[in-house]
Amino acid sequence: MTSVLYDAQGPRAKRRNVLYTVVFLVALAALLWWVYKSLDDKGQLDWEKWKPFVGSEAWTTYILPGLKNTLIAAALSMVIALPLGAVFGIARLSDHAWIRVPAAVVVEFFRAIPVLILMIFGNALFAQYSNVTSDDRPLYAVVTGLVLYNASVLAEIVRAGILALPKGQTEAAHAIGLRKTQTMTSILLPQAVTAMLPAIVSQLVVIVKDTALGGAILTFPELLAAVSPMSSYYGANVIASFTVVAVIYVVLNFSLTSFASWLEQRLRRGKKSTGAVLAPAAVGGTESAGTVV
Amino acid sequence: MFDFLEGYDLLGAFWVTVQLTLLSAAGSLVWGTLLAAMRVGPVPLMRGFGTVYVNVVRNIPLTVIILFASLGLSQTLNINLGAQAFDTINFRLAVLGLVAYTSAFVCEAIRSGINTVPVGQAEAARALGLSFTQVLTLVVLPQAFRSVVGPLTNVLIALTKNTTVAAAIGVAEAALLMKKMIENEAELLLISAVFAFGFVCLTLPTGLILGWVGKKVAVKR
């Protein structure tokens, strides 16, 4: 393995690297041993605490219904936020200042506010001004918060996607006599959508992660909210429950991330496209806003 | 019009938000830089550790990490980070969770910054006989940091917003106060506007100032 940052290794460097490896390994082993010890002291490694996850009951009663709600909220948010985001993204590119400026203000405003604040606001809004039942309210609130935030993030993705297209596309469209709307709908958008796909897929990761907020604060019965009833039912297996839930999140999000980068590479290789590809936001999490371009 | 604010420590809550942000930012900058150094370094085990850490942590919701810190670390394993009072414990756990989570993104930002440094810089440094640590700390990282001010600003803004997650374990920051106020007072729209304004005040200047700094320090190539 060579890199620009270090030379091909000679005998001394190899010996040094072995030494570093051993030291790091010892430190890592000490850490793992300490984790094991503290878990074992509290009896968190007892088979009794992990056994429920081998059987089906824990999955059908707690985990799968939670996962289902997580996925429902994420899918709903994405489906609603995408067209909204497209509208605002295109509005920000308008030639008319009275469309462009308000759209920019709305987008920047919702990007500057934490999703949690939007969710709490949505929850109270539905409680006071609508007749949504209290059972449905957390879902509505979570989806509202996620839509408001992610629509503005997606608006930026759409805008960047359209701006990333070569200028010749617009010029050629105008040259053959298309109007502005026609240029947008039949020339720019179709190409921009392919360029945006990786970024949109990785935004889905952000949405999935943010649904967990609803579970922690708004009693939305999603995957994370399944932990506390589950761990109290199976005798305080907090560590085991958290581990299982975290692994599910990692598997779900990691496959989405991998899918996004596969899409990105495929689009970059493709000969038919204009070569404009928006990388999935290098910085994910709630933070993808603004890292997209 | 704003009498509903009486009896609530609005500034105090936002001060906790600021404290959470600054402490976590400092912590994740250090740990994230170390992770980035591991990921580009010559020792395969460290590279592997860095990669696994970033890919695992990035894909877990911050809420899960912070709740785990409270329910798992503190309440199950009695790891209280040297604090006695309930408030202090939760505050420190929240900082720990935020650092663990944010450093994965800091690491990726810095790694992308390392990629913007021209190959010739590292080659020239190696030709002078500098070791990996010297190449990284004397030549590559100083240039990389100057080019990642923009991405790191985005991480910082996201971190500011992410501190609201600490409300999940009862840290008395802005989002928790907002929830309490909405439950007790009638002015839903006004309360929300006040808190939204507070966060806009925190995030917009950060973006503007650091954006200016980023342009100032960027290496002109």
UniProtKB/TrEMBL annotation, chain A:
It holds the Pfam family BPD_transp_1. Its main location: membrane. GO terms for biological process: amino acid transport. It is found in: Cell membrane. Residues 67-260 form the ABC transmembrane type-1 domain. The chain crosses the membrane at residues 18-36, 71-91, 103-127, 139-165, 186-208, 238-263. It is a multi-pass membrane protein. One of its GO terms (cellular component) is ATP-binding cassette (ABC) transporter complex. Gene3D superfamilies: MetI-like. GO terms for molecular function: transmembrane transporter activity. InterPro entries: AA_ABC_transptr_permease_3TM, ArtM/GltK/GlnP/TcyL/YhdX-like, MetI-like, MetI-like_sf. Keywords: Cell membrane, Membrane, Transmembrane, Transmembrane helix, Transport. The keyword Membrane applies. PANTHER family: AMINO ACID ABC TRANSPORTER PERMEASE (PTHR30614:SF21), MEMBRANE COMPONENT OF AMINO ACID ABC TRANSPORTER (PTHR30614). Belongs to the binding-protein-dependent transport system permease family. This is Glutamate ABC transporter permease. It comes from Streptomyces naganishii JCM 4654.
Automatic annotation (TrEMBL), chain B:
Keywords: Amino-acid transport, Cell membrane, Membrane, Transmembrane, Transmembrane helix, Transport. Residues 14-210 form the ABC transmembrane type-1 domain. The chain crosses the membrane at residues 12-37, 49-69, 89-107, 127-145, 157-176, 188-213. It comes from the Bacteria. The keyword Cell membrane applies. GO terms for molecular function: transmembrane transporter activity. GO terms for biological process: amino acid transport. One of its GO terms (cellular component) is ATP-binding cassette (ABC) transporter complex. Its main location: membrane. It is found in: Cell membrane. It is a multi-pass membrane protein. Belongs to the binding-protein-dependent transport system permease family. HisMQ subfamily. PANTHER family: AMINO-ACID ABC TRANSPORTER PERMEASE PROTEIN YHDX-RELATED (PTHR30614:SF37), MEMBRANE COMPONENT OF AMINO ACID ABC TRANSPORTER (PTHR30614). This is Glutamate ABC transporter permease.
